[in-house]
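Severity: low
Component: inverse-folding endpoint
Summary: output formatting inconsistent between runs
Steps to reproduce: submit the following structure tokens with default settings.
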């Protein structure tokens, strides 16, 4: 249910009113419409600026979401690397224990 803007500064400027016997003063109406037109132009400018900022924020959000995805992938990869390193460390400890037992057996049996 989007409402469309019906007036533009040009429509306001070019608006002509019928003159009745007991109508409004045309100069006053013109002055008032000039003020309305200026405000309308300011509002249009502010709205345009706001939309540009929103687009900028949307781009920032997209970039940050992409960065989060990359960092999550890196985190998963690092977790996998840590698991492999822990497994290797455990294997190395087992090898060192066996080597130590072999050294004891060899050196103590030679004497």
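Observed output (run 2 of 3):
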């Amino acid at each position: 249910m989007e409402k469309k803007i019906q007036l533009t500064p040009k429509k306001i400027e070019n608006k002509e009113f019928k003159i009745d016997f007991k109508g409004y003063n045309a100069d006053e109406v013109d002055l008032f419409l000039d003020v309305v037109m200026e405000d309308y132009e300011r509002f249009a400018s502010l709205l345009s600026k706001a939309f540009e900022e929103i687009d900028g924020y949307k781009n920032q959000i997209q970039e940050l979401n992409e960065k989060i995805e990359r960092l999550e992938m890196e985190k998963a990869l690092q977790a996998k690397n840590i698991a492999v390193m822990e497994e290797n460390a455990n294997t190395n400890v087992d090898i060192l224990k066996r080597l130590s037992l072999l050294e004891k057996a060899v050196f103590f049996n030679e004497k």
